[in-house]
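Researcher: Next entry in the queue.
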Amino acid sequence: MRAVVPVRGPVGAGAWRMYATRAGADTQAPKQAQRRGRDRPRRLLPRGPLPPYREWLKGDGERFRYPAPGNGPHWIGATPFPLNPAFHPPPPVHQGVRDDMWKLHTQDPQQWTVRSLSNKFRLSLERTESVLRLKALEEEFVQEGKPLQTELQRHMERLLGARPSFTVEPRPVPTSTPHSPRGAPYEELPEGTNTSVCTDY
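Model: Structure for this entry, 201 residues:
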């Protein structure tokens, strides 16, 4: 009897190592082992022909063509990606909320830091930072005369369920008390502040 063992690594994916346990064993084993996985025909899902797009829009697709405003995402299935049912994306931050965040931050950057904006609008610190970075980039584009895709953005917000009010994320920013055993919470300091002198006595 011969045993067939696939060899992985630098030898190659199609390499086989054989050793005999008795004389005169069958030498067809490697070909049969290869056929089991690679040459097996794929099973296709039984599916009839799809109707043309315009017919689908008049039938099942009518409810997706003009969705009611404010009802959230409108996907054909339960999730946007049927092969990844665990993926449930949060709705995007509405343009009005982003404008308010940018307005507050540009009026008084010392008061409206990333952390304070995150607390006020109930967004994560990372998401707040990215909103401010994108708003700064948007302002640069406007100054350079580059066009913005505001129509696409407006329609995507409508389809993905963005709300003009504050967006509540599943895990809000944790608040810490000033008498925490770990010390005062980290806050951004204005430039030029001398941090070598401690004044908290």
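Model: The chain has a mean pLDDT of 72.
Researcher: Noted, moving on.
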